Amino acid sequence: MINVATLLYHPLFVVVSTRSVCQRAEMAISMLSLPKPTILPSLRNPQRTPIFLPKCTSSPSTSLPEQTQQDHSPCISHSRRRLLEVAMSLLAFPLFSVSEANATRIEYYATVGEKLCDMNFAKSGLGFCDVLVGTGTQPPRGELINIHYTARFANGIVFDSSYKRGRPLTMRIGVGKVLPGLDQGIMGGGGVPPMLAGGKRKLMIPPLLAYGPEPAGCFSGDCNIPANATLLYDILYLGLYK
């Protein structure tokens, strides 16, 4: 890793004249080989500031009046500031590795299902089983609650996940604002016990309690969810929205 102090006070960067500073700064930056970090999906289109140096008027510093030399000082300051930014970007490189590790954990929870459990089926056709029974309160009808979830098709392909977004879903429970299978599977009823805060539950939602005979998530004729799809949900009930 490049040392910032060594880079800034290397003999190449001794200010002899306005022209030499800019030329040598450009040469130094062109010689740097910056590592290319792996960028997180959420950072694939960051606002990048291009590394460049301003063009300076060539004139020996010995022949410039004092006032003229002061007028060119922003060019020198700008060049040194750019070099400092380049060096600091090298120092910050390990941060990408930490973020990449976090992304790997998020991807795991978003794509790997909870451990298997034996499904029970309500009269409505909803399948459910508790991976972990919570110890908190059950969700009151009509209240806003927070959940984490991963949604899959019957073949196991993930089509939606709150983990990938990095935040839980806030939803109003029991008043028809979400899929009927989610309302029944979380709030309970019809032979399904209510979830308790902190609990994890697997749901198998038949088409009649999901999107039915119509495809869903359509854009320009391309639909993410086909008609009559059975959906599998892994639910973590976090509790009431605060």
From TrEMBL:
Cellular-component GO terms for this entry: chloroplast thylakoid lumen
Reactions that this protein is recorded to catalyse: [protein]-peptidylproline (omega=180) = [protein]-peptidylproline (omega=0)
Bilayer-spanning residue ranges: none
Key words, A-Z: Chloroplast, Disulfide bond, Isomerase, Plastid, Rotamase, Signal, Thylakoid, Transit peptide
Signal peptide: 1-18
EC primary class: isomerase
EC number from the UniProt entry: 5.2.1.8
Principal localisation: plastid
Domain (PPIase FKBP-type) ranges: 142-241
InterPro entries: PNSL4/FKBP13-like (IPR044183), PPIase_dom_sf (IPR046357), PPIase_FKBP_dom (IPR001179)
Compartments where found: Plastid, Chloroplast thylakoid lumen
Annotated GO MF terms: peptidyl-prolyl cis-trans isomerase activity
PANTHER family recorded: PHOTOSYNTHETIC NDH SUBUNIT OF LUMENAL LOCATION 4, CHLOROPLASTIC
Family to which the UniProt record says this protein belongs: Belongs to the FKBP-type PPIase family.
Name of the protein described by the UniProt record: peptidylprolyl isomerase
Species in which this protein is naturally found: Rhynchospora pubera
Lineage: Eukaryota, Viridiplantae, Streptophyta, Embryophyta, Tracheophyta
